[in-house]
Amino acid sequence: MYLADFDIELFLRDYWQQRPLLIRNPWAEWRNPLEPDELAGLACEDAVESRLITTDGDVLKMESGPLPEARFGELGNSPWTLVVQAVDHHAPAVAELVEPFRFIPNWRIDDVMVSYATDGGGVGPHFDQYDVFLIQGLGKRRWRVGPRCNSATPLLPHEDLRLIADFEATGEWILEPGDMLYVPPCFAHDGVAVGDDCMTYSIGFRAPSRAELIESWCEHQADAAPEEDRYADPALPVQDNPGEITAPALNRLHAMVMEALSDREAFARWFGLHNSLPKYADADWRPEDPIDQKEVQSLLAQGIPLKRNPASRFSFIRQGVDILLFVDGHCFECAEETAGLAEQLGAAHLLKVDPALCASHDATALIKTLIDQGSLAFEEED
Asked: Is the pTM of this model over 0.85?
């Protein structure tokens, strides 16, 4: 599937991170990529993050998965919603939904959350800290959008859900299959199923907070600092009052911290590693047996395409003519023909590389490593 009627440049200029936008079925041909029973099956698996939201009068209740299969038969006629996270990691057809949105850099893309709701089902009025495209897959959903919120926005008391206390809609639409609603960060929104068999695909984007960056970068630099790297004050003058922390001492202390944190090259390498860490660290996508490098050479020579694991995160940073490739928390220094390969890996989910690359030891070694760590595979390996 691809977006046939969507002005990307106009969207980025006038809407991205600025205001919501309703987009009526922009697809060349919309096809719902996942059946409701398949979604329910994923919600029963231990390795999949899922939630079930039910109603008790006017109160929403949440249960965390994995859910027993029998639970769905107990739900009755009251409205309910099933939400499953990172479905693109498990369903190739859902992973394909992400491809048309690659006009946003890979490092900003998170995953595809899928929800199924019966008539009247929803998760309540809320706001997210990230951009999201809400794609209607099956059935209909009424979306209401409100003003921009922040940490001071009053919330209802609830153990599991962050529900806005006084939600006032400024816009309202009913979405049908193929329709999309873009919601920027912090805008209030509320979706309610209109009829049964309502499925919505939420393509979310990552936005690290300043606090997260500061905490993680400082922790990284602190761990790397040698024990003997300490404050020093040679030629210390006698001061009038020993209780004073003097300005020269504060200047030296501040300089110690800022010097460690202002290394941009070190920050770039750290951020590439930090940002490419898998979302679900317990997931192991490695093949049962390591691939032989000669087999890599043979398959490349035959023109067999390579495909990225949908759960893997690929990005790169240029360093002159060389490239630092970051994949699933690992950094690979790439030069010459391997740098070109790294760019290809960052650009496309499925790629057919030049068969001549089979003669490059460094390139085939990189491919072997990525296959062995479960980030990459040859297309024939299904």
From this structure: yes
